[in-house]
Amino acid sequence: MKLTSQALIAIAATALVGCVEWHSAGPAPSQTSMPAWSQVQFGMTRQRVYAVMGKPLRETEQLAEWRGPQVKQGWPSDHPSITYWHQYEAYFDAEGRLQNMRDYDASDAQH
To answer: Tens digit of pLDDT for each residue in 10-51?
Structure first.
């Protein structure tokens, strides 16, 4: 009985450690978070936005994009799982000042 209890505890601990690592992973270098995004304000320079948000995942003259941390849903019970993330976009005018911004949820779901 004691061996069975120890085995169950070991299995439960392994599962919990896996969940904690899966959900608590911080943003990757090209990812950002909602607290950083909430500090971005209209009229900020591109350099100031980058100082708050970090290096963008993609950028053009008018647009910079960041991604929030990825979250998988449907795993392990549903196959295939779908990965979701929050997308952040900043649009700059000709002088390099923030003129528009938007954020939305995105996924790798194939419809």
So the answer is: 565 555 444 433 443 445 555 566 688 999 999 999 999 999
Distance of CA 101 to the CA centre of its chain: 17
**pTM of this prediction?**
0.63
Segments making up each domain of the chain, as ranges: 27-107
What contacts 46, CB < 8 A, 6 or more positions away? 64, 92, 96, 97, 98
Q: How does DSSP classify residue 94?
A: T
The CATH classification number of 27-107 equals 3.30.1450.10
DSSP letters, 26-80, are ---TTB--HHHHTT--TT-BHHHHHHHH-S-SEE-SSEEEEE---EEESTTTSSS
Maximum CA pair distance of the chain?
73
Hey, what are 93's tokens? Answer: 């005018």
